[in-house]
Amino acid sequence: MTLSTAMDWRGGLDAGDLSAEVLVRRSLDRIQSLDPTLHAVLTTDADRSLALAQAADRRLQAGERTPVLGLPVVLKDNLNWMGLPTTCGSAVLEGYRSPYDATVVSRLLAAGAIPIAKANMDEFAMGSSGEFSAFSPTRNPWDTTRVPGGSSSGSVVSVAAGYAPLALGSDTGGSVRLPASFCNVTALRPTYGVLSRYGLTAMASSLDVVGPIGASAADVASVLQVMAGRDPLDSTSVELPQVGDLFPLLPADLRGLKIGLPSEYWGEGLEPGTRGVLEAALGELDRLGASPVKIRLPHTRYAIDAYYLICTSEVSSNLSRFDGVRYGSRAERDDLTDMISDTRDRGFGAEAKRRILLGTFCLSRGYYDAFYLKALKARTLITRDFLEAFAQVDLLATPISPGTAFPFGAKTGDPLSMYLADVYTVTTSLAGLPSLSMPAGFSEGLPVGLQLIGPPLSDVRLLAAAHAYQQATSHHLKTPSLPS
Ligand code: GLN
Question: Does residue 458 carry a pLDDT above 70?
């Protein structure tokens, strides 16, 4: 079977052959039949989604068109959708309901997209496998004995399993790109600041971005287009001169494009099957006219250390707000300190606790300079490497992960091996650069993603290059065998 893209559905909606209500009912049915196995979804509100679908149908009938009008979308459960729970995959937020919409959600709603579900995720977006949710771990639809990748596990699986053509996740160190690679969908980590973070629960604020996910680069472009740009409610969001009409996305002319291949990403540690698939994808890019250039990013080796020091430091600060006073669950105790400590002890899972402890240690007096400040210096060097590379090449191509989706439990006992799954993705997070994962083929039946990285604000160019590749190949249209 071929995966239906948002573009396919949109063709039907625009021609009047389909209605938003039919699409939303189809999505809700699919969730009902498949999600008891896949566990990608935490909450739905069928009445609300159907009412939004009817409103979208009225707009379509009146002749209105937007890139997403009438299309179902799934939201990661760290994005606020007013009135619904935002659990962040954590028990500590039990009972909490969002009092407002995230800016990306309100912009999607204004453009007529229809949220149909809040998606499962690793707790507070910490994780690479989807196994650190306080609820059930999400399963990979390509092989349900394997992880889907994290932390945007449910959002990505929702697209891969055809619940919705579009989803939003968040990416701090790879959290849309890694699961996209494991599940054969396309996902973008936009340049830091292109999408507002207002209403996205903060994990590590200097690294967090909202990441659109779709069946194709063109789908990702269509959803990015309606959300991008300055938001007065997020002071780090950027003014984009003209987002421009990304729809339909024109394939980039890859002729003459210089694609840098950093040796640090293509050396040891890459599984042979994954390497074979990725080299074939590079061959296809060559055939489309791009020329490969070998380059060096010499400070890459510090990336995992720098990322996990900066990330945990910011986590220790951001997660201090979950104290039982303001949000979610509370352990009722007579003494205030007992209340806070018991709320946090019972509310947070092991990975959240590990990061809070590590981050608090990094920021403490005497260790701040040795760990946190040093990590910031490494971050500067890593960013500089990239900017120097972009003086020589237009884009970079790298693996997303050293291997394909791994079996459940393979890395949960060893935090370091889990952290190393992000070795190719945390670098662009540190540098704030746009990077995407696109399906490149299969190794032993499991999907492999190729990462494209561009200079700041080259998001559209990156998507256009991926679109050119997808026009010439069909890996992204392959679907796992699930009941239709
Ligand atoms: N796996 C990485 C981590 O655990 C990235 C998570 C993310 O991007 N949210 O920090």
Answer: yes
